[in-house]
Structure formats: C-alpha cells, structure tokens
Model the fold of this input.
Amino acid sequence: MTSTTSTPDPPADREARRADFRAYYDAEAADRALRPMPSWRDAAREEFLARLTDERSRTVLEVGCGPGLDGAAFTAAGFAYTGADLSPGMVEVARAASLDAHVASATDLPFEDHSFDAVWSMSTLMHLDDTELDAALSEIIRVLVPGGLFAVGMWGASELTVGPAAKPDEDYGPPRYFHRRTDAMVRERLGEHGEVESWWTRLSRPGSGHRYQYAVVRALSPRP
Done:
C-alpha cells in the first residue's frame, strides 16, 4: 500500500506484527548469522567506530542486534557492547557468540537512564509505525548519556510505502511489515530527537526509489 499520509495503527495490529516478527526472525536466525554484511554496511560501522573512539565512548547499545555480526565488531574494537532484539532466536545466536544480548522491544528498552555512550540501530526501525518510531527514538534518547551519538539506518523509499513486504525466496515465516519513509520524513523525525550530524542515502539499484537511509545523530536532552 502506498500513501502520502500515515495514521497510527491499533495496538492489536502492533502486537500481531510483533508476533510475526518473532516467528520470522527466530526461523531466520541461524542463516542470518552466516550471511555476510555488504561492504557499505561494514564501512558505515567502521566510520562510526572511529568516531566513537575519537570521542572516547566506551559503552554501545545495539537496538535490533540480530545474531550479533555488528556486535562482534564492536566487541573486537574494545567497546563494552550490549545488544537488544525482539527475537529470542536472534538473541540466542548472539549469546552463543559470547555477546551480551537481551530480548527486548525497541519501544521499551530494559536499561537504566543514561546507561550508554552510543547507540547503533541498523535495518530495524523501518518495521515500526509512526507511534512506535517516536517511542523507540525516545527510548534511545533516554538510555543515552546527554549529548551521546546514535546511528540509525533503515530502508526507505521515494514515496511513503506502508504494509507487508512480499515473502523472500527463503520462506522463514509471515511477511514482515515495513514502514518505508521518505528522506524528508526520516530527517524530520530524527531532528525531533537530536541534531543530524551525518546523513547519506544509497539506492538499492540505479533508478530505484528504494534506498537505504543512514544518519548519525547527536542526542538532545530527554523530554520532560
């Protein structure tokens, strides 16, 4: 479904989507752990790692940690890493790789205020509707130290596109819900929670409206 506006979804719809996500990603966990990251994703992470090193950051939370591929890189670079993921299967695989990982929703992180110097969240927040996205960004700000950095990457589109994606070739479970926002929408949402210090987009293929949106944001103080 393609639209120019987005309205909040009923809570029951969100719960159903979360159940579908858990089923899908639990089934995919073992395979995803063996799937290498694309080079441009690795490059974004390495640039963020360098930035955190320059700022003497030590603790990093990953929201949507999956099987821990990025987490292993953060740990190898000497950072104190914590991962969170909605999928128990993904968390099990991450823990098997000796990572500190927790089953949790991005909209309700089980961590104390100001617990982390930085947050990393890739290919996760585009699965949230607008109400959930606002809650997740507020949670990221809450657990960050004042002025901390968070990096966000998500799949977007040239026009707002909302709804389940077609099933991939590997049938892991129910089709996943995507909320693909335009660049302007994403920048506006992020700007409500911090200062966007870095931004780029990468088309999935030449001429496509489907793109990856990446930002590094300096957190604002938590809302009262």
